[in-house]
């Protein structure tokens, strides 16, 4: 079972930057997608950014132009570069991998433990 370990969260002032990292242990299954979600109190967990194995990426509308998702395939690490941070970006950020158990039939999601991000002056 692949395990995900996030790091890089913390306290930052509005307008600042952070880079989140998610390191994955070796997986016996192919990875369909790698993503970052975030959750704030009283709200559902929302997709912030995702990149597929084919290299297609998608972003939450409110972070477009400010956040960038990327991966280092050699280390199997996915990053979320967050620039021009706003107080509304505050939340716990979770790494998510979607594994291909059986193509077209079964997929499985794996989650990290979360890393908190606080944007405040």
Describe this structure in words.
By secondary structure, the protein is an all-beta fold. The chain has strands spanning 4-7, 10-12, 18-24, 30-39, 46-52, 57-59, 67-72, 77-82, 91-102, 106-111, 115-119. The strands form two sheets. Strands 2, 4, 5, 6, 9, 10 and 11 form a seven-stranded mixed sheet that branches. Strands 1-3-8-7 form a four-stranded antiparallel sheet, with no helix packed on it.
How far the N terminus sits from the C terminus, by CA atoms, comes to 40 Å
Shape: elongated
* Strand and helix order: EEEEEEEEEEE
- Unreliably modeled segments: none
Nearest-angstrom radius of gyration?
Answer: 14 Å
Overall pLDDT, averaged? 94
**Number of E strands:** 11
- Main beta sheet, described? 7 strands, mixed
Helix content: under 10%
Describe the structure concisely.
With 121 residues, the chain is mainly beta. The protein contains no helices and 11 strands.
